[in-house]
Amino acid sequence: MQADEVLQLLNNYGKYPRIIYFLLCFVILRGVFSVFSIMYIAPTTSHTCKSDRWNSSSVSVATSDCSAFVFNGTDNVTYECLDWSYDKSPEESIIAQWDLVCDQEYIIHLSTAIYMVGNLFGCLILMPFADKFGRKQ
């Protein structure tokens, strides 16, 4: 059903059903914002490994997102990062506050999946109650 068809159907009804329809649209919009809120509270943040542990003039350090490569002339050693520096423009996100990068990045996706599973079970469990108590006999 297209939006034009819905509006055409609404023209056949009175003022009260139209008001109910538009109020329900606002309820649905609220749900949309909660579903997609993770995109706004946890946007992709650029980060690099802090190399403060290796502040020596005798070693050369190259950093990537999750590792630091230390070159001391004879050995090339790769270390896992323990601290990160973040691009904080325009402001700091929960990714930077809770260090949800590299091996902790799965937590962002896990929280979204748990939220969606909760929505599914909430709908399945509460649907019989809505039918029983919400419908007129």
Tell me the layout of helices and strands.
Layout: H1 3-11, H2 15-35, H3 38-41, E1 47-49, E2 60-63, E3 67-71, E4 76-80, E5 84-86, H4 94-98, H5 106-134
Antiparallel strand pairs: 1-5, 2-3, 3-4
Protein architecture, described:
InterPro entries: MFS_trans_sf. The chain crosses the membrane at residues 20-42, 106-130. The chain has 137 residues and is α+β, with helices and mostly antiparallel strands. The protein has a domain at 1-35. 50% of the residues lie in helices and 15% in strands. The strands form two sheets. The chain has a three-stranded antiparallel β-sheet, with no helix packed on it. A two-stranded antiparallel sheet has the order 1-5. The longest helix is centred in the C-terminal third of the chain and has 29 residues, at 106-134. The two termini are 29 Å apart. The mean pLDDT is 77.
List keywords for this structure.
elongated, 5 helices, alpha+beta, 137 residues
